[in-house]
Amino acid sequence: MQRDKQARGRGATPRPREKEEASLDRSLAFYIEKIVESMGYPAAAAKVYAYLVLREGAATISDIAAGTGLGKSTVAMNLKLLEHDGLVYSVKQGKQKLFYARSALPMVIMYPMKVLKEYGEPLLHALEKAKDRSEHLARLYREVTVFLHAYEKAMKVFEDEIKSHIGQEFLAAGHLSETIMPAPRRKGESRSSI
After folding, report:
1. Cα–Cα–Cα angle for 182, 26, 81, nearest 5°?
2. Considering the domain 2-101, what is its CATH architecture?
3. What are the DSSP E strand ranges found in 2-152?
4. Helices 61-68 and 72-84: crossing angle, nearest 10°?
5. Is the pTM of this model over 0.70?
6. Taking the chain, what is the end-to-end CA distance rounded to the nearest angstrom?
7. According to the model, what pLDDT value does residue 180 have?
8. In this structure, are residues 89 and 97 in contact, taking their beta carbons and an 8 Å threshold?
């Protein structure tokens, strides 16, 4: 086993399984990054978060910089942003600061639903007031009403699944609450301006 590792040093061709795992890791990182970017975070913050989610255990700024190809100052700035929003946390160990991703991936995936809830209901109320102005607005009101009703049913099913598979503690700990997830980015507002 030890010889195997030494033999596969620099210049050695990766085995098919290693290639497959590397490809899978790149795919996982890509999708996590895209979800985080859709939340309004800069691409560098998304890359840092994806790295921490996929890594087993803690990482220093140097580890993250080496693993993502980003500069240490870029990593540090984006960690500050992610830590501020509760997606990562740090623990000081001696002179080093170790960073971890919170168990936040389900919350990150849920983020578009949070945005929908925040903006969907006010949109529905505005459409309700305007629906008598034209058939187009009346149809839009009906469509949004149906969509939001379906959304509420889907959220109930989602919460029931979370309770049965992950546990009541996940919900009770506020993992799906408003306090963990950052508020949706407003027009003109930047996540990078802390």
Report:
1. 25
2. Orthogonal Bundle (1.10)
3. 88-93, 96-101
4. 110
5. no
6. 48
7. 40
8. no
